[in-house]
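Final report, Chapter 2: Outcomes

The project's central promise was a pipeline that accepts a single protein chain and returns its three-dimensional structure in a standardized token representation, suitable for archiving and comparison. That pipeline is now operational. To close this chapter, we reproduce one record exactly as it appears in the project archive, with the input sequence first and the structure output second.
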Amino acid sequence: MNLRKYFSKMRGTTRGSPPRVSNEEILWSWLGSFLGIAAVAWVSQLFFEGLDRSLMIGSFGASAVLVYGAARSPLAQPRNLIGGHVLCAIVGVLCWKLLNQHMWLAESVAVATSIAVMHATRTLHPPGGATALIAVIGSPAIHKLGFLYVIFPATVGPLILLAVGLLVNNIPASRRYPEIWF
């Protein structure tokens, strides 16, 4: 391979910055993400307070960006949102259980395998990689959940985000969610 050609690909293109979205789009994205994350946090507090469990994991912040800020993206669609988190949670728990004596290996296998599984199942959702990684690097409380992690938080949380996305993203005439279900 020609090294000059290889490195020239790293310059990017001359297309410039992405266009600015309207203030209305910013408002709806803010409102949707606020309500979505608030709903997950509220359900978590309602049902898990005092149990050393949480329905909230960091990867849901990234899911909120997609579902409410880029609702038309293929990566934000229900199949990807739910499937990505669920499949990656399974991969992450398996990697923790099988490889936790070698954390560097468990972490890297969890993320890499999650990407491969999401590609193979057409459920690519970038926050899913974080869901798998959290299953490996999470607290003892996360590890104690084992495969229950797949249900709480990795299935219930995205279902709440989806429900709020369906409600909020379809209020303005300029938005529609989802583009596709399956």
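Archive annotation: The CA atoms of residues 77 and 178 lie 6 Å apart.
This record, like all others produced under the grant, will remain available to the consortium after the project formally closes.
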